[in-house]
Predict the 3D structure of the following.
Amino acid sequence: MKILIANRGEIARRVIRTAHRLGHTTVAVFGDPDANAPHVREASEAVRLGPAALAESYLSVDRLLAAAAETGADAVHPGYGFLSENAAFARAVIDADLIWIGPKPDAIDHMGSKIEARAVAATAGVPIIPGFSDSQDPAELMAAAEQIGWPILVKAASGGGGKGIRIATSASEFHAALSEASSEAQRSFDDGDVIVERYITEPRHIEVQVVGDHHGGLAELGTRECSVQRRYQKVLEEAPAPNLPELTRRGLRQSALDMAGAVGYDSAGTVEFIVDDKTGEHFFLEMNTRLQVEHPVTELVTGVDLVEIMIRVAADEQLAACLPDDLAITGHAFEARINAEDAANNFAPQLGQISMLQVPAGVRWDAAIEVGSEITPHYDPMIAKLIVGGSDRETALAALRTALDQLLIGGVVTNAPLHRWLVDATEITSGRVTTRFLDETDLSILDDQTRTVTAAQQAAELWVRTTHAAAQDVPASPWRARPTFTLSRRPPTEHLGLRRLGTNEAAFEASVGSHPAPSVPPAAVVDLGNRRVAINVNGETFAYELVPRSELWAPSAADRAGTGQALTAPFPAVVAEVHAQPGDSMQADDVLVVIEAMKMLHSLKATGTTTVDEVRVAVGDQVASDQILVTFLTPTDSPQSTEAKAET
Ligand code: ADP
Ligand code: ADP
Ligand code: MG
């Protein structure tokens, strides 16, 4: 069979892997920024869809179907995100006489609306969160909220990925929550409808993996804990969910089967629940009619390959033939989503090129990236998943800690330091987390840069001392031929310095002279060869290059443009909104421009009183890092600067 994978990144590669193992051939598709991406190379063949814009590439049903026709594909796997939960796409695939490797379109339809899904759950006897979805009239929604009781959650009916969700803790907040949730939902899902629900104040997010076939076969593969979330997006997941009363666990698994049965589910999917940590009650949240990002933790504890099951049941095989007779949940597994974002800096998206990558042995690494990969603003920030298993929870968590200590990702800041911190947090080690945990944690604790940099530098110095103590130890050195170097009578190490790589920072000198060896900081040190070393301190990667001291004073990174008199883009992005007009006077916190990168909106705000001079961009413009967006007349009081803030 020839399978077209209508996706990109790690999930495209993951599907390709299983497809090839099963003897199928594959077709990758790509938007221009992905022309050199690993998934394009790894598939049997690849088809260009179009430019970066999603509507002209990964979200273009026409182009995907054309690619399938052109290559003679027999089947389509949608991955997750993009068109995976788009019933119209599933139908178009089926109408084109292709096999849809996913659930039947009707099930996608029924579960795609949270309003309808709640009704299905209620009919199936699955507990739902007290809520209201009978009307979109603001007054009726408000009355329902009053009756349910505060706090209330307003949620997009067509929502996904945590978008279009707002809390209202009292009647006075309801109106703002309603309009924000609704407009975000309209923007993201082209559907402004919402539901109101009781906000569970100590919620755990626990979900159950289900699989079904075309013959009525159905099974559940146990629970996953996904309560470590930031802004309703999962960060760290595990299987099985820890610390669950046996009654709750059984209830969850039965409810998942009931739900899947109610829609005649016939592929891999996930039923999500909220568990009230105070009472142990569980409530249906939604059903995701696709393969999920965190499916590998279930694969590790069950030994099944969920993509294999999806492919085989799509080809009409019986589920029973795809599952082992002795199916059981054994051991424990964790998945850390590695995102290109700076957790210590309000999760600002990070762009750039991966300059180095060292993945620890003995882990599952499902990644979009390799050395040289460019992290662009066009796609979401998840660049890899680090998945580890163990015989029990403690062992698996220790393995994750070790893996994070060894993982090296150079060139782009990632959230690995957040994960490194998480694995030691009491909430995680005890397995007692609610979805509020991360949002309520002050993550400035991660921002101990000076100490971290010092530790990395000391580790690098130690590396120089132990492996490159003498000039002879620097093999085939390009500067060795320099007369000033070879003729020198002073100890050769005095001529060496360390230059930090992979940052925009000015080069700095690290003395590797004859002072006493620094004490060893808690760091993993990896000799990369070529006189380069990578150091992992607390999940963050630092890379250094051994260079002649004379080279340490190379020109420093360019001064950042536009300080004071101009608003500049903090990273490459697309302009989403322009609020500043020439002549406008702005106050601190007024939003000047909103830019979009990696599916997040960032408001760039004024920090003081000023008057707008020129507006140099318009909605839809692509802007480069440091590009001037708006200029100001001389500010009268505080200097002008900018603030990027994630809005969604
Ligand atoms: P999971 O429960 O598998 O983590 P998420 O809801 O986080 O699922 O979404 C998985 C992926 O799909 C993420 O990359 C997310 O950005 C993307 N995604 C989710 N919903 C949508 C949507 N409606 N449109 C486009 N992308 C989406
Ligand atoms: P999405 O489609 O965006 O994934 P969900 O309905 O799955 O939306 O909700 C996303 C997250 O929001 C959940 O994982 C949970 O953390 C939180 N959440 C949703 N509903 C409630 C609720 N009623 N009370 C408390 N938290 C909730
Ligand atoms: Mg969800």
Summary: The longest strand covers residues 218-230.
